[in-house]
Amino acid sequence: MSAILEFRHVDASYGGATILRDVSFAVGSGETVGLVGRNGAGKSTTLLAVYGVPTTQGDILVDGVPLAGRAHVPTSRGVSLVPQGKRIFPNLTVEENITLGRASRRTGTWTLDAVFELFPNLARGRRRHGTALSGGEQQMLAIARALMAEPALLMLDEPTEGLAPVVIDAIVEALKEIRARGTALLLVEQHIGMIQKLADRYLALRGGKLVGDGPVARLQDRAVQELIAL
Ligand SMILES: Nc1ncnc2c1ncn2[C@@H]1O[C@H](COP(=O)(O)OP(=O)(O)OP(=O)(O)O)[C@@H](O)[C@H]1O
């Protein structure tokens, strides 16, 4: 299996503070990987490192090619991020927000119609403004926008945070559909239940170090749970 995303001995720091230390892992084509760890373990920093937000050392490769210089956007190389806090544009309509994601020149299956089929309530509210949406709809909108770039790997930072159980179920179903279409997922979650429902493999961070990488069934082991202090 070829790696879409690979970290090789990556350190990441904000200012002088080193947050990630010697982190190495790979996400293969079509794989679903859950990244777990307690508050402050470095999960968001790992995703943001792909975008060059913290300062990094070591190599981050997309499709086997290092992300050199950070001048180019990983999205155009097939890696998209749904950031924590969604970051939708409140003054644009649903449809305008979604089409903004189409910046890359990649081609594929995620047309506007296809994302509206995935999230019918966005289709019904396509002319509403971002501010008029519920938290769950905003999350769906952020996912829809990221899909428009036709990612080979979609990274999501706590996509169910603060949402009602029925909305979480809808997002889980959408992620299953995205996965079924062959898109790899790297999912940051505090709740291992979500990762157990969706992922093939888990990665665990503790204090900025990778302390676990294995099949998701191992998340049930008490030794693993203690290690990551969930
Ligand atoms: N912009 C920043 N500047 C300085 N320190 C930061 C910044 N962002 C995060 N940190 C620090 O980096 C560490 C890791 O944060 P990160 O957000 O990656 O953790 P996390 O595992 O995603 O946790 P959470 O679940 O709380 O989001 C924390 O100690 C945090 O305070």
Q: How does this structure look, described?
A:
The protein has a single domain, classed as Rossmann fold (3-Layer(aba) Sandwich). The protein is built from eight helices and ten strands. It has helices spanning 43-50, 94-100, 112-118, 120-124, 135-147, 165-180, 192-198, 222-228; strands at 3-14, 17-28, 32-36, 55-62, 65-66, 79-82, 153-157, 184-188, 201-206, 209-215. A six-stranded mixed β-sheet has the order 6-7-8-3-9-10, with helices on both faces. A four-stranded antiparallel β-sheet has the order 2-1-4-5, covered by helices on one side. It is globular. The relative contact order is 0.19. Adenosine-5'-triphosphate binds at residues 14, 17, 19, 37, 39-45, 190. Belongs to the ABC transporter superfamily.
How many domains make up the 3D coordinates? 1
Q: How far apart lie the N and C ends?
A: 30 Å
- Write the element-wise H/E pattern from the N-terminal end onward: EEEHEEEHHHHEHEHEEH
Q: In the CATH hierarchy, what is the class?
A: Alpha Beta
- How much of the sequence lies in strands comes to 25-35%
Overall SS class: alpha/beta
CATH fold-level name: Rossmann fold
Q: Which spans have pLDDT < 50 for at least 5 consecutive residues?
A: none
| Helical fraction | 25-40%
- How many β-strand runs? 10
CATH superfamily: P-loop containing nucleotide triphosphate hydrolases
Whole-angstrom Rg:
17 Å
Number of H/I helices: 8
Bound molecules: adenosine-5'-triphosphate
Inertia-based shape: globular
CATH architecture descriptor text: 3-Layer(aba) Sandwich
